[in-house]
Design goal:
Length: 295
């Protein structure tokens, strides 16, 4: 049944390239490895070592981390990945749980999320790892495979600054766990996500009275022997006092479906968040807390 895609629970099916939302993991890896300074500007000329930015033949010019997240610059994250090396990048993806299925109080699938490494590639296609593989991973492509639920859980972790987060059908008990990263590194990433919703690729997710932190992405996958687009949005709100995390994935069903993260997935996320805050208006408070609460 699953092979025929009947009853396939797409929300927690780990079959999708996470695309540009994974750049937040790359940022965490660079900050954790001390190879990335959030204020340092790196230059995007539209192409780097043969790998193109999404604005090519245009270019972003000089960008710091906040601006690179907001504009979703590929070249910035290629350069970050080159500095830290694939070991740090892969290790960070595993540290934040990208290689493990979220624990869910529902029947699980036989498939597991994939964080590729040189051994995986050698066994899969019989060739060695290259810098191109590192670049592809840094922007959420290559062999990476995740589910919308996994990406929502990652947003909940970043929102609450917790290394672990298990989704529950019923409201979980509040427990204090190990932080995902230090507050300075977290804020550097969140600032970029806020800028993305204010004037960057996620600007269609603006909501009156609610500050949203968001990240868009447009990826590719193969289904029914066709190369198709995927549109992503992940985020949380309010950005300064998180209450809810969201992940939206739109599948293109034919090659002509030009779905894009900023154009297709982001308005849906805006409508979801707007409905949430219409129902729970007190949750949109912009009062800042020193310790973010789990959404």
């Amino acid at each position: 049944i699953q092979r025929n895609e009947a009853w396939l629970p797409r929300a927690w099916h780990p079959g999708y390239a996470p695309a540009s939302p994974f750049k937040l993991v790359t940022a965490l890896a660079g900050l954790g490895a001390n190879t990335l300074d959030p204020s340092e500007e790196l230059k995007c000329e539209g192409i780097y070592r043969g790998m193109k930015c999404h604005v090519h033949p245009g270019q972003h010019g000089e960008l710091n981390l906040r601006q690179a997240i907001a504009q979703s610059c590929n070249v910035y994250f290629f350069r970050c990945a080159e500095r830290m090396g694939h070991e740090h990048l892969i290790s960070e993806a595993r540290r934040v749980g990208m290689d493990q299925r979220p624990l869910l109080d529902l029947p699980t699938l036989r498939d597991s999320p994939i964080v590729p490494d040189p051994t995986w590639k050698k066994n899969r296609v019989g060739v060695n790892w290259t810098m191109e593989d590192t670049f592809n991973i840094s922007i959420g492509q290559g062999g990476l495979r995740q589910s919308p639920l996994q990406m929502a859980c990652f947003m909940a972790k970043l929102a609450a600054n917790l290394k672990s987060f298990d989704p529950k059908i019923t409201k979980p008990e509040s427990i204090r766990l190990e932080p995902l990263t230090d507050n300075i590194n977290r804020q550097a990433i969140v600032d970029g996500m806020i800028l993305a919703t204010k004037e960057g690729t996620a600007r269609r997710c603006q909501i009156d009275g609610v500050l949203v932190a968001g990240k868009t992405g447009t990826g590719q996958w193969r289904n029914h022997n066709m190369k198709l687009n995927l549109a992503w949005f992940i985020g949380f709100a309010p950005a300064d006092s998180p209450k809810v995390a969201v992940s939206v994935l739109i599948e293109g069903v034919i090659p002509q479906d030009q779905v894009q993260g900023g154009l297709t997935a982001t308005p849906i996320a805006r409508d979801l968040l707007s409905a949430y805050f219409a129902k729970y208006p007190t949750s949109s408070s912009s009062i800042k807390h020193n310790t973010p609460q789990a959404p």
